[in-house]
Amino acid sequence: MTPLIPVEDLVSPPERAGATLAPDGERIAFLAPWKERLNVWVAPVDDLDAARCVTADETRSIHQYRWIDDRWIVYAQDTGGDEHFHVHRVDLSDPEAPIVDLTPFPGARVFGHDVAVGRPGRLVVAMNHRRPERVDTCEIDVATGELTVLADGDGEVGGTMVGPDGDLYGIGQDGEGHWTVNHRSPDGTERVVAAFDGADHPTGPFPVQLTPDGTGLWIGRHGHTDRLRLVHLDLRTAVETEVAGHASYDLDTRGQVFPTIPSPLIRDRAGELLAVRYSRARQVIVPVDDAFEEVLERLEALSDGDLGALSTDAAGRRWLVTFTHDRVWGATWLYDHATGDARLLFRSHPHLDPSALAPTTPVTVRARDGRDLPSYLTLPPGTDGPGPMVLVPHGGPWTRDAWGNDPVAQLFADRGYAVLQVNFRGSTGFGREHMQAGIGELAGAMQDDLLDAVDWAVARGHADPARVGIFGGSYGGYATLTAVTRDPSVFAAAVDYVGISNLATFMQALPEAIRPGLRNNWYAYVGDPDDPAAHADMIERSPITHADRIVTPLMVFQGANDVRVPQAESDTIVASLRARGVEVDYRVYADEGHMFAQTENLIDMFRATERFLAEHLGGRALP
């Protein structure tokens, strides 16, 4: 029998990951463990073994950083998963210089930060450092740390950008909930440039990026089409022009929810647009720059994976690219366009044998009402006939599953389970109609899609109907809890990871500063918890209301610092089950928030999960 892959090999930090080139093209930065936490390292591009660790966080891994210029790197970090991010500065010119917190305000939370367009050495930061419920737009001089408030709690719930001449362009909402592009000039003159249907963009327009000259905006739009496409919005005339369209694919917008996923806009160091990412079952990149078209052809020839994160030097000569692949994880290549030379720098998990991992195949599930549900199926190597299966609904719900390296799918497949990931209605990335079909359908048709996926897998011989489990986090955790309250006979085991058990209390507990942005997502799809009729409907759609129906063995994981799904959510449903004697294993992690990040906690969670599933579904587990 094939030896099992240790949990640690799949969920521990990568050996190296997140590589980017310095503007001079002579150095590379990447994330790698230091004292068992991911930190930022910098090395000569031709000698990675000479890398120097330039950050020193031994408490929590760093996952986001960026070059400001050849001297400065900045990164974001929170405390214990509480999402109160601060932005820190590293001085690469002085190894002894202390790391500086550029946002040193107790209790403050940075909601976003970006390099200012046409304003070298400056960051634009959205932060509630003066009032918890109001987000100011600030500019920070990275070298001096000087902070200037540019917009005082301006209410631009989708963020504010700063043009080269100091003009402010905000993404706001009007009284009808439509998204607006608002311009405020340095002399204080204000005007609305354009407005977009709020329902088209539940979590706000994305991507949204100023052109380098500050006269235009690249923005994701549906407009008259079902697909999400990229348009150029002229900020003077409000004229829209489609950019690099695709006939049937949507822009890849996962980066709006998961900041470590690359933007759909591929740009050079000066900010000029080179290409656009679209995605359905797999990714397609559409070039818009003639010179980059040849570079793209050379890069895509390096791997049969999807081109992931990409960076270049200021001259556009050297290119660093990491590929996304179901079995070859984190292959990072350096390509020199002047010479045509390319070399593999590293793989993120070199200890994993790609031949031992399971291929992930795009499939289409047909829902009971005829809707096609784009999905992904990962079968255990050497599988023969129906066996146990784990259904894994994604979080959000305004995001999607995609093809690539997925440690959860690989862990379960290695243990002998078929793994099915379904882009149920309400998911983004498959057209406006597919997304909006989720309105009002939490615990309704969105849940039916998951059950139809189980039936699909059983009918095709992928799953034994008596041995189907479900594992989900965040909204996926809500779907998991709903599954065992609404359809308890379908699942033999369930694992809830920071899932919502009470829709009303969940929405009421969300931080005040982000509530203006809920109008087109939670309020539109579920309702306003302050409205008595909507509140009653939320309670009816909440798993806690029907906890007395749960008979499925359940495992629950919760972060004590979770600001999205407070611990009280999980405490309540666990207490209800224990009072009835239903089997439930409950684990709370004191140093985690909504998305677990600590290696030891991830290892503990998935070790417990594999034992739990083995007991109830009959798969394999390490002792």
Write structural notes for this entry.
- The protein is 17% helix and 33% strand.
- It is an alpha+beta fold and 623 residues long.
- The strands form eight sheets. The protein has an eight-stranded mixed sheet with strand order 29-30-32-31-33-34-35-36, with helices on both faces. Strands 1-2-3-4 form a four-stranded antiparallel sheet, with no helix packed on it.
- Strand 18 and strand 19 (229-234) form a beta hairpin.
- The mean pLDDT is 94.
Specify the overall morphology. globular
Number of strands: 36
Percentage of β-strand residues: 25-35%
Distance between the termini: 15 Å
Helical content band: 10-25%
What spatial order of strands do you see in the largest sheet?
29-30-32-31-33-34-35-36
SS content category? alpha+beta
Low-pLDDT stretches? none
Mean residue pLDDT: 94
Number of helices: 11
Radius of gyration: 24 Å
Question: In a few lines, what is going on in this structure?
Answer:
The protein is α+β, with helices and mostly antiparallel strands and 623 residues long.
From the structure above, extract its key features.
623 residues; alpha+beta; 8-stranded mixed sheet; 4-stranded antiparallel sheet; 11 helices; 17% helix; globular
How would you summarize the topology of this molecule?
Blueprint: H1 7-11, E1 17-21, E2 27-34, E3 37-44, E4 52-53, E5 64-67, E6 72-77, E7 86-91, E8 100-101, E9 110-115, E10 122-131, E11 134-141, E12 147-151, E13 160-162, E14 168-173, E15 179-184, E16 190-196, E17 208-210, E18 216-221, E19 229-234, E20 240-243, E21 250-251, E22 265-267, E23 273-279, E24 283-287, H2 290-300, E25 306-312, E26 318-324, E27 331-336, E28 342-346, E29 360-366, E30 372-378, E31 387-391, H3 407-414, E32 418-422, H4 432-436, H5 445-459, E33 463-473, H6 475-486, E34 493-497, H7 503-509, H8 522-525, H9 532-540, E35 554-559, H10 567-580, E36 584-589, H11 599-617
Parallel strand pairs: 31-32, 31-33, 33-34, 34-35, 35-36
Antiparallel strand pairs: 1-2, 2-3, 3-4, 5-6, 6-7, 7-8, 9-10, 10-11, 11-12, 13-14, 14-15, 15-16, 17-18, 18-19, 19-20, 21-23, 22-23, 23-24, 25-26, 26-27, 27-28, 29-30, 30-32
